[in-house]
Design brief:
This protein is mainly alpha-helical. The protein has a domain of 90 residues: CBS-domain. Strands 1-2-3 form a 3-stranded antiparallel β-sheet. The longest helix has 26 residues. Coenzyme A binds next to α20.
């Protein structure tokens, strides 16, 4: 590659395309400490890469390269390699387009489009790294409490010992539900699940406490509202869960840390230190994660100057979708369905061949291992239990099958695959998996709302009209 000054080579075996090896693969290999004298190309290449036929249109090549972030694609006919088309080749024949047309070209799902600036954190999908402010989120989960991370997100720095103590005390007394909200939750819980109750109860909380539009609320007051909302969300969720199953609401305790108190309210039993810490670490890991759908929804609503409850209620709605926050219980249900490790391969193969998605795998941003999933896998292994070993075996099989059937998509386990395993080991019922995610993520949403309001500009993009042509517009007469 160096001699020919090219960024990739196609690997062939008996004249058939076997894989593609790129500069990036070689960087990975060298970062992993591979000995170049003995390593083989087959181990580091992407096997069975996507290919193009010689008759395909340039537009097809262009969208395949840009959609999958490839820089090169082999061109193949009847299994024989004819050539390689590269992003550079296509750039060379790029044509000038009117600016209006070019600026309207956004990828479906806004993938990769920068829509705001934030100082709250970032996700680096190629590296498998994410951070909250200037700290690695994984390091924070290893060494800090949920309250410390909450403080970091809201105030911009980690608290010192005294600040941390005062902040925790402040939060603990905000856990109680306003009396009228208790009755309203009881009514909602008779028919709705915990997330449905949450999305309505958050709105009711705003009404009950008289929250004004954020446009008419000063920054200090808005932050105080956000602190109260995050403190009360676990109480709403656990009340909704208990009332739904016909049990009594368990009042919050003020002497427990946030995650331990959440587990207490769910079961009415004080959790062990190990359980409380595991759930706390999970909730730290899920506080924030770039411009995911619910965070974006929260910021869009906040940008209209609406009140805090409106923005968080919208975010809860976005999180409830299975493609976002609704996967952990489905991932666990999949393990149940697979039943035994030897059935994993055929189960996954058939599901992918039917065009289904394997829950807990794949990510819009991560194109390598999701660091949250790696952390949770270790956490699950340390907690033990029969499902954990089985889950690791299934993970391995799913990744193998997806690599074979979806070459080049780089699909790995995401945060949700082990989340269910960890939560189950801590005694959380499947119905409460996504709500437990929401407890941590509310802190992230509120941080984004505060940031949006502090530097606001209405978020109001445009769409390209692709329907039946309307009549030619006649300029309005004065
Ligand atoms: C998370 C997710 C929505 C991201 O999707 P996305 O960025 O829009 O990715 P795309 O839909 O463009 O998928 C790219 C390709 O990978 C495939 N793919 C992505 N995730 C897959 C999965 N979990 N199982 C099987 N195939 C998958 C798609 O079918 C597509 O294949 P194609 O190119 O042949 O059409 C997607 O990976 C998914 O649905 N995962 C399962 C749900 C889940 O775990 N959600 C929790 C996310 S934290």
């Amino acid at each position: 590659m160096r001699n020919s000054e090219i960024g990739s080579v196609i690997v062939t075996e008996r004249d058939k395309v076997a894989g593609i090896l790129t500069e990036r693969d070689l960087l990975w290999a060298s970062a992993a400490g591979v000995d170049p004298a003995v390593a083989t190309v087959g181990l580091w290449m992407t096997a069975h890469p996507d290919v193009l036929g010689p008759d395909e249109e340039v537009d097809a090549a262009w969208s395949s390269l840009t959609h999958h972030h490839y820089r090169h694609l082999p061109v193949v006919e009847s299994g024989q390699l004819l050539g390689v088309v590269s992003l550079r080749d296509l750039m060379a024949m790029a044509r000038l387009r009117p600016p209006a047309e070019a600026s309207a070209e956004v990828p479906p799902g806004l993938e990769g489009v920068v829509v705001a600036e934030t100082a709250l954190g970032d996700v680096r999908g190629e590296e498998g790294f994410y951070h909250y402010r200037q700290y690695s989120a994984i390091d924070l989960a290893q060494s800090r409490s949920l309250e410390d991370v909450w403080y970091l997100m809201f105030f911009g720095e980690l608290p010192g010992g005294e600040e941390a103590r005062r902040f925790s005390e402040e939060l603990a007394v905000l856990r109680d539900l306003p009396p009228r909200l208790r009755a309203q939750i009881a009514e909602l819980a008779a028919t709705g699940g915990p997330l449905e109750v949450l999305r309505s109860a958050v709105s009711m909380l705003g009404v009950e406490l008289g929250w004004r539009p954020s446009l008419d609320t000063d920054d200090e007051m808005l932050r105080a509202q956000a602190i109260q909302l995050c403190a009360v969300v676990p109480t709403i969720l656990s009340a909704a869960w208990n009332l739904r199953r016909g049990a009594e609401m368990v009042d919050p305790r003020h002497d427990l840390a946030a995650s331990a108190n959440y587990l207490w309210m769910l079961a009415g039993v004080e959790p062990t230190e190990t359980q409380a810490r595991a759930v706390e670490q999970y909730q730290i890991l899920t506080v924030d994660h770039g411009f995911n759908a619910s965070t974006f929804a929260a910021r869009v609503i906040a940008s209209t100057g609406a009140d805090l409850a409106a923005a968080v209620g919208g975010a809860v709605g976005a999180l409830s979708g299975p493609l976002h926050g609704g996967a952990p219980s489905r991932a666990l249900a999949m393990l149940d369905d697979i039943g035994a490790p030897e059935r994993a391969e055929i189960w996954v193969r058939e599901a992918v061949e039917r065009g289904e998605r394997i829950m807990g795998f794949g990510h819009r941003v991560y194109k390598t291992n999701d660091p949250r999933s790696l952390f949770l896998r270790d956490l699950a292994l340390s907690l033990g239990g029969p499902v954990v070993q089985f889950a690791t075996e299934v993970e391995e099989k799913v990744v193998d099958v997806l690599t074979e059937l979806k070459p080049g998509r780089r699909l790995y386990a995401n945060v949700e695959f082990y989340a269910g395993v960890v939560m189950q080991a801590c005694g959380i019922p499947p119905e409460m998996f996504t709500p437990t995610f929401a407890v941590g993520r509310t802190i992230g949403w509120c941080s984004h709302i505060l940031e949006q309001v502090a530097h606001n500009r209405l978020i109001r993009p445009t769409a390209r009209y692709v329907g039946v042509a309307p009549p030619v517009a006649v300029p309005a007469r004065r």
